[in-house]
Amino acid sequence: MLNYFTPALYLKSYEDLDPAWLVRRKIRLLILDIDNTLAAHDEQVAGDKAKAFVHRLKDAGIQAVVMSNNNKERVSRFAASLDVPYYYFSTKPLKRTYKKVLRDTGLKPDQCAVIGDQLLTDILGGSRMGLTTILTTPLVTRDIPWTKLNRVVENQVYRLLEHEEILKRGDYDE
Ligand SMILES: [Mg+2]
C-alpha cells in the first residue's frame, strides 16, 4: 500500500530536476502539477523559473503537459503562459485523465513521469497508472480549502513513510 505513495524521486523543487534523469529512464513526457508545484495557487501565470524549466525539458526532448484538479480558467491561463497542453478538473488520483494524456500523446505509462507536491493526488495517481513519480515540497504553505483537508491525511501518510524508513520529509534524493 505504501508503495503507491513512494515516489521514484523526492526533490525540494522542480528546479532540482535534471532532465537527464528523465532521459536516462527513457521518459518522453512529464506531467506537471501546477498548484504548489510550479506556482502558488494565487499566481496566475508561470514565472521565469517555471518557463526556463519547461524549456530545459523541451531541449532534452521531453514533452510537457500540465494536469491539475483546478478549474479551466486557472489551468488554461497557466498553461498558455508555458505554451503547453493542459488538462483541468483532472480528478487526480483517479485514472481517467492520465489515460486521456496517454491516448493523446500515444505514449506508454513507462514513457511518462509526473511531478507534483501531493502524495494523495500526484504520487498516488501516477503510481496507480504505473508512471514514474517525482515528489516535490509545496512551494508555499498557502493551500485551497480542499487541499488543506488532503494535507491532514497526507501528514499521516508521511508519518507512515518515515516510520517505515521509506521517505523522510526534507531528506531529498539530490
Ligand atoms: Mg499541487
Folded structure, characterized:
The chain has 174 residues and is of the alpha/beta class. The protein has a single domain, classed as 3-Layer(aba) Sandwich (Rossmann fold). 39% of the residues lie in helices and 14% in strands. It has six helices and six strands; from the N terminus they run E-H-E-H-E-H-E-H-E-H-E-H. The chain has a six-stranded parallel β-sheet with strand order 1-6-5-2-3-4, with helices on both faces. Strand 2, helix 2 and strand 3 form a beta-alpha-beta unit. The two termini are 25 Å apart. It binds magnesium ion (MG). One of its GO terms (molecular function) is phosphatidylglycerophosphatase activity. InterPro entries: HAD-like_sf, HAD-SF_hydro_IA, HAD-SF_hydro_IIIA, HAD_sf, PGPP1/Gep4.
Note the run of SSEs as H and E. Answer: EHEHEHEHEHEH
Cα shape? globular
Count of structural domains:
1
> Helix/strand-derived class?
alpha/beta
By CATH, the topology is Rossmann fold
The set of bound ligands, ions and cofactors reads:
magnesium ion
Number of E strands: 6
Number of helical segments with 4 or more residues = 6
Within the largest sheet, what's the order of strands?
1-6-5-2-3-4
Instruction: Give the N-to-C terminal Cα separation.
Output: 25 Å
Ranges with pLDDT <50 over ≥5 residues? Answer: none
The CATH superfamily name is HAD superfamily/HAD-like
Mean pLDDT: 95
Pfam families: Hydrolase
Protein name: YqeG family HAD IIIA-type phosphatase
InterPro entries: HAD-like_sf, HAD-SF_hydro_IA, HAD-SF_hydro_IIIA, HAD_sf, PGPP1/Gep4
GO molecular function: phosphatidylglycerophosphatase activity
